[in-house]
Structure formats: structure tokens, C-alpha cells
Design brief:
There is one protein chain. The chain contains 16 helices and eight strands. The two termini are 27 Å apart. Helix 6 links the parallel strand 3 and strand 4. The protein has one domain: Alpha-Beta Barrel (TIM Barrel). It is 48% helix and 13% strand. It has an eight-stranded parallel beta sheet, with helices on both faces. The N terminus is likely disordered. The chain is globular and about 65 Å long. The protein is of the alpha/beta class.
């Protein structure tokens, strides 16, 4: 169902509450594990490692105020930024916090905690993006890092928490040789829970890097790895074209600026390529001035497979459930539209077919129950 189809819906049916947002079985397909470390994680990591905080704990996530991160001279890692003009500071902050993770046990614990927070928003499956260039204590041991994270996620799943798999993300400034070697090592295995290859970082700064990584993504495709690419955020539709044509992208992280190119919209629709849109992140970064100018409804009306995600929930001070409530309120979308987002999130995820089928069945049951409750409430009025 598209946004325009709701223009005549009764006002009382528009928007969903937090309980409904949590109850809807869903997947999250655009979230960075680095952006999912909570304040409590950083406090116990700093304490265990005998490290001082770069500022007061109460304002630790106000990263634009911090200028005293002691970081290596190398280029900072990938991911998306927070705060207008604050991308470089945010990337330094991510490097600092990931630098606190120094042992396999610590990596496993932060991964477990991440899965628990996903579960609290009703997320049943997650493709978590991890860019090892942030985790500077693991240079040369990146696969050990990913194995430790996978171990924590396996324990979380055994305890009934959200199923989380991993997308290994390249940094745009890495070389073609580095990218190829990473894919070769993933394919050679063992690579527990690594289901996809990704690339992130600031498009505007790095420029077009699709051709550079084409070989690595082709190897990933041929080996059966999924492909998801950050594009169409800090640069225009050209990055999305490169992701589709050169990197065999099955999914685009962000991709909102595809709306500027009608031919690209048609390509996304015809190829069934989903967008992992993160409205709150887009507004915080200044990609769009406000909810009224965000192209989410236009993308939905066009027929693009759009999903709703958080990007970096902890620094943004949000959860997926809260973002769903806020999005539904701003655009006047009720249960049916939000259930559509849940269904598309499952379809766009890299979960296996059996899990997708189970999630769709649970979603249908949840929506039927919610509709019956709505009808009962209306009849009682």
C-alpha cells in the first residue's frame, strides 16, 4: 500500500503506537553494529581497559563537542555521520569506541547486547553492517574480530534473541587489492554469519568507487555472497547506478536520492532492488530539511521496495520501534502501511527462506489480531 492511498483514511486510524511498532515482526537491513553500542557498553569497556572517557558520560554521544580523540593517523573508518558538518568527528568517535573492544570476549559481549536491543524493538532478524576498519585494535586480525562477534550473536540466538547475520563492509578508501583479498578470505572460510559484502563511507569525499570494487563484488556474487551498497545519500543518483551496474547490488543502503532520476527508479523497480532508508539519519545529517521534504512517500508511491531502518541508533538516540512510530505519525500511516514496511523488510533481508516464511506467517497473525482489536474498539465507541 502506498502513502497516497491513505489520503482519505479516518484520522483515528493514522499512525501506530509504540506497542504496535514493537509487536510487528520485522527485519532491520540497514544498521551498523558500530552505531549500536550503547552508553552502558562504552562505560564498562572503558572501565575494563582503564581508559578515560573523552568527555562527560552524560554527553558522550554529543560527538560534535569532542575534539580530543586520540586516534591513529590512518584514515578513519566507514559508516555514516551524525550532525551537520560533523561526519569526520563522528567517524573519529566510532573509531574511539570500537578501539575499546580489545578481546574476543568483549567483542562477543557487545554483539550479544546489540542483539538484545534489536529484540526489544520487535526486530526478529538483522543484517548488521560491520566495517572492521573502525576496530583498530584488530588490524591484521579482522577475521578473528568477526568470529568473536559471530560467537556473541550465536549465543544471543540460542537465548531466544534476534537472529543477526553480518555484512562485511569495505571502506571506500581501501584498495581494489584489499577488497579482493577480503572476499577471497571470506569465501575460503570459516566465516560464521557473514552473509554479505558491503561498502560504506562518505561518497561525497571518496568520489565514485564502483569501478574500483567491481572485481571484489563480482567475486562475492559468484561465490554466493549477498551484496548491499551505501549509495545515494551524500552524493546523487550516480552512486546508485554504479552500485547496480558495477557492484551487482541486491539492496541499496539509503538510496533516497534515486528519486531524482526517474530512469533509476524504473531500474530499481524492474530489478526488485530494495532501499534501506533511514529517515531520522537523513534528517539529522541534513540530507533533507525536514519530514515534509523527505522522498519516502514518493519512493513508496512509485513502487520501490522501501524499508525503514535506524542506521546508527545509539548516537541518534533512537530505536527502530520509535522510528517507526515517528515515521507513521509524520506521514499519517496506519497499521496497513506499517505492516507493509514489515513485510518488505523481511523480503529485503538476507535471512534464509525458512526464517522468512516463519516471519511472514507471524506477521500475518499479528496484523490480523491488531485489526480485530481495532474493529472491536471502533464498535465499542
Amino acid at each position: 500500500m502506498t502513502g497516497s492511498s491513505l489520503t482519505s483514511a479516518p484520522a483515528e486510524t493514522l499512525g501506530i503506537d509504540i506497542a504496535t511498532a514493537r509487536a510487528l515482526p520485522k527485519a532491520e537491513v540497514h544498521v551498523h553494529l558500530e552505531g549500536g553500542l550503547a552508553l552502558a557498553d562504552l562505560l564498562w569497556l572503558a572501565k575494563e581497559n582503564g581508559e578515560s572517557l573523552p568527555g562527560p558520560a552524560a554527553t558522550l554521544f554529543d560527538v560534535s563537542t569532542h575534539t580530543d580523540f586520540e586516534m591513529p593517523e590512518e584514515t578513519t573508518g566507514g559508516g555514516d555521520g551524525v550532525g551537520t558538518g560533523g561526519l569526520s568527528g563522528f567517524l573519529r568517535f566510532l573509531d574511539w569506541q570500537c578501539g575499546l573492544v580489545r578481546t574476543p570476549d568483549q567483542a562477543a559481549r557487545v554483539a550479544y547486547a546489540f542483539a538484545a536491543r534489536q529484540s526489544s524493538s520487535g526486530v526478529r532478524y538483522t543484517d548488521a553492517i560491520v566495517n572492521p576498519t573502525h576496530w583498530h585494535g584488530w588490524r591484521g586480525k579482522e577475521h578473528d574480530l568477526m568470529a568473536a562477534i559471530a560467537a556473541g550473536l550465536a549465543e544471543a540466538e540460542q537465548d531466544g534473541l534476534c537472529v543477526v547475520n553480518l555484512a562485511w563492509s569495505l571502506l571506500r578508501s581501501q584498495t581494489a587489492t584489499e577488497a579482493r583479498e577480503i572476499v577471497e578470505r571470506i569465501v575460503a572460510g570459516p566465516s560464521p554469519r557473514i552473509v554479505a559484502l558491503s561498502v560504506d563511507g562518505d561518497e561525497k569525499v571518496a568520489g565514485r568507487t564502483g569501478e574500483k570494487f567491481s572485481e571484489a563484488f563480482t567475486l562475492a556474487r559468484d561465490a554466493g555472497l549477498h551484496r548491499t551498497v551505501h549509495a545515494g545519500e551524500s552524493s546523487g543518483p550516480e552512486g546508485v547506478w554504479d552500485a547496480v551496474d558495477l557492484l551487482h547490488a541486491e539492496r541499496i543502503d539509503h538510496g533516497v536520492r534515486a528519486i531524482e532520476d526517474p530512469a533509476l527508479i524504473e531500474r530499481l523497480i524492474s530489478d526488485g532492488i530494495a532501499l534501506g532508508v533511514c529517515p531520522r539519519s537523513n534528517l539529522t545529517l541534513g540530507v533533507y530539511d525536514g519530514w515534509a521534504s523527505h522522498p519516502l512517500p514518493a519512493l513508496l508511491d512509485a513502487g520501490v521496495l522501501v524499508t525503514l531502518n535506524t542506521d546508527d541508533p545509539e548516537p541518534l538516540g533512537t530505536t527502530l520501534a520509535h522510528d517507526w512510530v515517528e515515521t507513521s505519525a509524520h506521514f499519517g500511516w496506519g497499521l496497513d502501511v506499517m505492516a507493509g514496511f514489515a513485510a518488505r523488510s523481511i523480503d529485503a533481508s538476507f535471512a534464509d527462506d525458512s526464517l522468512k516464511a516463519a516471519l511472514h506467517a507471524d506477521l500475518s497473525e499479528t496484523v490480523a489480531t491488531a485489526r480485530a482489536k481495532q474493529k472491536s474498539t471502533e464498535m465499542a465507541r
